[in-house]
Amino acid sequence: MADCIFCGIIEGSIPAEKVYEDELVTAFKDIHAQAPVHLLVIPNQHIPSIQQVGEEDSELLGRIFSVMNRLAVDEGLAERGYRIVNNCGDEGGQTVHHIHFHLLGGRSLTWPPG
Description:
Residues 5-114 form the HIT domain. The chain has helices at residues 5-11, 58-74; strands spanning 18-21, 25-29, 37-43, 82-85, 101-105. By secondary structure, the protein is an alpha+beta fold. It has one domain: HIT family, subunit A, CATH 3.30.428. The longest helix has 17 residues, at 58-74.
């Protein structure tokens, strides 16, 4: 998608501090971090939201969650705990319409966030 910021990050035309990249998934630091560790994990394939995910995407979702587990270990979050967030749709707080997961940790995370 030509106007998608995350697609631009994947292709390298928009700068980001990438921490992981393979043929299916890219992860990078959120520029508006809400915790000491705040990474965004996205599929390289443009999927607008979780609403467009189907059974055919099961391998991709498995890879995304596997990468998040690996990143949690790499970032020192696995033992202490962390949060994974996906916002879906405008009222769900989704501001970039390319499915993405927030991996947050490094401090005690309260609910509701604030």
